[in-house]
Design goal:
alpha+beta, Small Protein B, Chain: A, seven-stranded antiparallel sheet, two-stranded antiparallel ribbon
Length: 149
Amino acid sequence: MSIATNRKARHEYHILEKYEAGIALKGSEVKSIRAGNVSIKESYVRFFNKELFIVGMHIAEYENRGYDDVQSIRNRKLLLHRKELSKLKSKIDEKGVTMVPLSLYLKKNLIKMEFGIAKGKKLWDKRKDKQDKDVKRKIDRKMKEYKNK
């Protein structure tokens, strides 16, 4: 079950590879995410001291929280195995490659994040993708009309 998606990421980047990671969260943050009060639109994934963090993810304050004073925007650690981290680090060292979050979802009552290794699209790439999508939509529409006759 998807909680939040970053639809703009697929428009702005070519996704080369996808990975899944857990997130280190506080208690009230988990409840707020389960309620759907999270945004990953402006966020990105970065390495700090051989650890992976998501930067700029906004989690709204849970209305029934106790004494916890958790900031809504802070760096949150992504949980991966050390081998995966070293493999990611070597791939990210290439020029023009970055990591972007794609979706946030529940898996066996744990909150997981899917992020991808991505390369930025040029303006003409974006136009071509939109044109291809429009052509596919027209073809599907014609096929549906043909089947209904």
